[in-house]
User: Fold these one by one.
Assistant:
Number 1:
Amino acid sequence: MVCQYPEWRYNKPVASEYRAVRGYLGHALRRAGVNASGKVVVDLLPCTGLYLEAMSNEVPEASFQFVELGRQVAEFVQRRLPRPATFHQYAMTATGGASSDIADASSDAATLVFRLENLPTAERRRLLAEARRILKPGGTLVVVHTNVRSYFEVFRAIRWLIGRRDVQYALHTDPSLGPFEALSNDEVSDLLVESGFRIEHRHGAFPLPPPDEAKHRVRALPRFRHGQAALGVRHEGAHVGQHVRRGWQSVCRR
């Protein structure tokens, strides 16, 4: 069951996006050395748990925990995971100090996947401060966000013009579901450095929309259909050093 809302939306990924993001998360976590017994990874605001489930499979030796705003959302996440992950309540309204009950410097890695886009600037800073608090010295934070300088905003405008709206799961209304605002690379980098992180490396994906993304986003607009094949084939073999793209990921060290 799904519900439609004029302002609150959950942007479900198509297969190409899921594969790219899952692959990068797995690579980044293995590079951080957390695919081992005793290593702890904390996912920050996993929402539906789609990528937390993926990471659990990518690094099966690690122990996972997550922070989320609502218990109903957390229960939804836990039901889909291949093995147990501990839920910690996240307090967005905290006036200072810790936003969860996770111990200081207790985690080897933390992940933040498409969540900065949903939050006001002050809450973005609070969430990054929480990530830094729970990470061990030298720990890794993996951030995935949507680049504002990409085709994402163009396709959103097209969908709006043709009357299509995004949908969200009929869960407890969770502020982390929307509204969704794509961010620039510089904006995210500045937030990370300001929060005390050192950016170790960056990775981008999709300088042009892949075929399934183009088809999914504009399939209701007949005059665009003839152009979908061109959109799809030209991206093949594209170099991942360009800056205009759908997704952008950063790996940081505390």
Number 2:
Amino acid sequence: LRPPQQEGTLYVEAERPVRVRLAESDVSPAELPPGTAAFTTFLEPIVQEGAGSARFELELRIHEDVCAAEHFEELYVYAYHPVMGW
């Protein structure tokens, strides 16, 4: 899957064929951790009900006009879970 507003790819691995769509938003699903800022939109893979488990791998390219090259090493990818948080 490719996020419309980003240069990247979301890979999906599942036990059997599964339908997945990608929701993308400029709004965070929850308050960001202190001292952090978002450099991309927020992505949520939506898997069809009853599909079983799936594993996701995300590959993103952050352009230098968004974050200077000297700061790339400070970037982290965060995942949010409604119960566990960031």
Number 3:
Amino acid sequence: MNLSYNTEKSKLILSEYGRNVQQLIEYAVVIEDDTKREALVKGIINLMGQMNPAFRNVEDFKHKLWDHLFIISDFKLKAKSPYPVPGREEVQLKAIHIGYPKSKIKYKHYGKNVETLIEKACKMEDPEKKQGFALCIANYMKLVYKNWNEENVNNELIINDLATLSESDLLLSVEDSNLDKLNKPSRLHSKKRPGQSKGYVKKSGRHSTNNRRRQKNRR
């Protein structure tokens, strides 16, 4: 199989998939063995999906991939599609291309990931887990804000932004929320007394009483 790059050989039909995918599809068209052709087509569909991971949540994503497969093949490919094969007359080239999902990010400095986390938190049913997750998100938002602005940011601003982005579903109080606690090491060990060695173990009162009795008997 020769997949040499040649811009004069054929015009790119759907540029978002690139020339290599188009050449793979052109090669699949001329394969006579049904089994080999179906195996290659399956691999091409998977490759096309991996090239557009952001669109997996788009409605009928797989259906669109198969339609694009036949369009790129100039409707010459014979393959067992799980969807109706589109006809040439049904296709309008201006509507072929995958459109990037349009989602307005309210605060661009936080990014889409923060909004995704907030959406997930809002769907949580357990109040305690929801509140804990909201606190984690707020800590992350503060970290992102510092990286973006490189200035000190007060907790009230972060908590207000979280409330706005969650449409008042995730509410934290400034008094009860320490947004820096995730960055501070927890103190698991109790403080040692002055002069107390590392392996010191305090003896119970019972053992101390027994020792005093033994010393008294020896006298």
Number 4:
Amino acid sequence: MDVNRARTAFGRCRPWQELVRICLSQLDGLAGNANAGIVFMADPTGEMVDDILFHLKAETGIEQWIGAAGRGVISGANEAFDEPGLALMLIRWPDSDIRLIETGGVIPEDGDGLALLHLASDTRF
């Protein structure tokens, strides 16, 4: 996988295990040297986020995942709205360009929240 070349997958069904299997089968080993994953989950899939992330990490070998959950997801011409759905993107970025920041405790667990972080590309930490 070239730097900045992404692989994508989409699925909608129940249970979540089948949903993840469908998405991973579309990637069919294409994770290659991807070092980051982006996952979008449509409700009620988001309720299983910990299980889904554990499974994605184990199956792809990718440790760094970011994403979101909401009422729906769109991937290309596909969509899942008010039904279980999953959209995945695997990408390879230069290792020096990736740094995930732990947000535990920043967004309240008992309510809606939003965290937005933007840094200039030359920011070093």
